[in-house]
Design goal:
heterodimer; A: alpha/beta; 5-stranded parallel beta sheet; 42% helix; B: alpha+beta; 8-stranded antiparallel beta sheet; 6 helices; 8 strands; globular
């Protein structure tokens, strides 16, 4: 069963993500709403995929991804964000984030995100 | 009094139109429904007239959620809609399952509105920033039921009376009978910078 960690300070956003996760395909979803929570959960669960929001208090999603890498978390990281300005795309690419997906999450977007998992 | 030429008004409306159309697209994806977006209007007003310009000075049940802007554009963007329609909007998003009650439900509703506003506003600002080839910082989203103090507490425009430009459009989901306004309030300096940028594109000083 593949494990996914969603990191987003918005409860609504995490709920929308959960609602779009296909129930029949055996994904195990974990959630974090802070960087500290994300680090703890990522080290505990070792997810195959970490989905990170960009606009978060204190640190943006690119900084969160960098912090995870520094902590030795090598999971596949993608951004799921409404802020897809070129500056954000450039920062994500420079930080080694595989893909930036534009909110809102849809079934098609979820399929694309999960389909690209190794 | 600041007046804008026909070209300047047209240019501002077009940039806003592109941004708000993207916002409508994202809202359409969020609700899985058609969204009708009006052509934006552009007005230069005094900041003290902000609420009346949006028709909010006599309306107690408007819900607002927004984000401050800085960097390439300085101002504030917000989503406004009547309280009952905000609940319809949230129900459309998550279904009609009662998840919580009482105070917890109100907290959830506020949070949901904030996230909806974040998606819509960020998508509008993103396409405008990329179009103008500038970077705009989006502050943390905030929410608050309409009251003069609540609105201006989060507003960039409250400090002293000065001129601001308001670009706003109506977003309506006719099938769900939900509608609201997406508003962009910018400082005059930001407006001037935007117009200068568009002049540079038009004259070839900046390549598209």
């Amino acid at each position: 069963m593949k494990k996914i960690l969603i990191v987003d300070d918005s409860m609504t956003s995490r709920m929308l993500f959960k609602m779009h996760l296909p129930p029949e395909d055996g994904y195990e979803l974990h959630e974090a709403n802070t960087i500290a929570g994300a680090l703890e959960k990522a080290k505990e669960v070792r997810p195959e995929l970490i989905v990170i929001d960009y606009n978060m208090p204190k640190q943006n999603g690119v900084e969160v991804a960098a912090a995870l890498r520094q902590a030795g978390v090598n999971s596949d990281c993608v951004l799921l964000t409404a802020n897809t300005q070129q500056s954000v795309l450039n920062a994500a690419r420079a930080a080694g984030i595989r893909q930036v997906y534009a909110k809102p999450i849809t079934h098609d977007l979820m399929r694309a995100m999960l389909g690209s998992l190794p | 009094m600041i007046t804008l030429s026909d070209f300047e008004l047209d240019a501002l409306v077009e940039v806003a139109n592109i941004g708000m159309s993207r916002a409508a697209t994202q809202l359409s994806l969020l609700l899985n429904d058609e969204i009708v977006v009006s052509i934006p209007t552009a007005r230069v007003i005094e900041s003290k007239d902000f609420l009346s310009a949006l028709g909010l000075d006599h309306q107690d049940d408007a819900v607002c959620a927004g984000q401050p802007l800085s960097g390439g554009l300085d101002g504030y963007s917000l989503l406004l809609l009547p309280l009952d329609q905000s609940r319809t909007l949230i129900s459309s998003l998550i279904g009609n399952k009662p998840l919580l009650d009482g105070a917890d439900m109100r907290i959830f509703e506020n949070e949901a509105m904030t996230e909806i506003a974040n998606i819509i506003i960020s998508s509008a600002i993103t396409v405008m920033a990329d179009m103008l080839k500038i970077e705009i910082q989006l502050g943390a989203p905030t929410h608050g039921k309409k009251s003069v103090d609540a609105l201006f507490m989060h507003s960039h425009t409250r400090e002293t009376t000065h001129h601001i430009i308001i670009l706003d459009a109506r977003l309506n989901a006719p099938n769900k009978k939900v509608g609201g306004s997406l508003v962009l309030a910018l400082t005059v300096d930001s407006m001037s910078a935007m117009l200068a940028r568009l002049h540079d594109f038009a004259s070839g000083n900046i390549k598209v």
